[in-house]
Design goal:
Rossmann fold; 10 helices; 2 domains
Length: 298
């Protein structure tokens, strides 16, 4: 299985080349580019480079069936669709200057479990709002130049991508696994000593099924979301990872709603936490949850 580690500096140079290649092909601010590629450093830098040039990346699952892919691409209307061969060509583009933070949020598509997948599009940000949005993420997760993020989830999902972007822009390293495999994750933890990772509960369940795990004291955050976490798995995570490291959140594709540190979960088992800073949550008479957010996070 492929595993790659990239520094912030190397990633910056690759982003600039891919963004330059996209601009050379005629894409402009506000255009969309779809990526149909498996996890890789090139994919991560392609998505981030496009976003920092104001071109909206549309990261898609490369395993989609033809009819599923067609529905989404017809809706997204990208100016360019990038497969792995195209991405390799883009990586040799002429470097350009990039905005200090993404000027667009990636246009993720909902899973479609209750209907047709819907693209989440929030428009192009000016540079001040872009910086405010990135700082908002950093305020919650405290990204740092000393961080090493382990990516073991698909980069066409919003959470692993958000953590990757925050880590790189803070100056940290990112370790990218091609796909989740519990043994490969454990090996990466031992070899690369990550400080951060994101997992869904099924990942944690498979990891704990291995039995013996490597030393995990390098971690400062193990963050999970994406599905309700069964209490035994949550308790196992709290017991296995260093104290204070197991955090949870709710909302990622459509927005960023709540965050839950471990002490709050221990006080209120089952909670997904409180509204993030600068947010306000309401539940209407129909049971819908509304999140009031700053302008830059819409």
């Amino acid at each position: 299985m492929r595993l790659e580690r990239v520094t912030a500096g190397a990633a910056e140079r690759l982003q600039a080349r891919i963004a330059g290649a996209l601009l050379k092909r005629g894409l402009q601010i506000g255009d969309r580019v779809a990526f149909l590629c498996p996890n890789s450093v090139e994919l991560l830098c392609g998505i981030l480079g496009a976003a920092r040039a104001g071109i909206a990346p549309v990261p898609l699952n490369p395993a989609l069936l033809d009819e599923e892919r067609t529905v989404i691409l017809d809706d997204a209307d990208p100016a360019l669709v990038v497969d792995p061969a195209d991405l390799a060509d883009l990586a040799d583009g002429p470097p350009v200057d990039l905005a200090p933070a993404p000027l667009v949020r990636p246009m993720h598509y909902t899973s479609g479990t209750t209907g047709t997948p819907k693209g989440v599009w929030s428009g192009v940000l000016d540079e001040s709002d872009a910086l405010a949005l990135q700082q908002d993420e950093s305020d919650v997760w405290a990204f740092d130049a000393g961080d090493v993020l382990l990516v073991c989830s698909p980069l066409h999902h919003s959470a692993p991508l958000r953590f990757s972007v925050g880590t790189l822009l803070a100056g940290g390293d990112v370790v990218v696994l091609e796909r989740f495999d519990a043994g490969a994750v454990a090996h990466a933890m031992a070899e690369h000593r990550p400080t951060l990772t994101f997992m869904v509960p099924a990942h944690l369940q498979r990891l704990f099924a291995l039995g013996d795990l490597p030393d995990l004291t390098s971690f400062r955050r193990l963050v999970h979301a994406g599905a309700p976490c069964p209490t035994p798995i949550k308790q196992a995570a709290l017991a296995t990872f260093p104290p204070g490291t197991v955090w949870e959140f709710y909302g990622a594709t459509e927005g960023q709603f709540t965050v839950c540190p471990p002490d709050e979960w221990l006080e209120h088992p089952g909670t997904v936490g409180r509204a993030r800073p600068r947010r306000r949550l309401e539940v209407d008479d129909d049971g819908l949850v509304w999140c009031h957010v700053p302008r830059f996070a819409r």
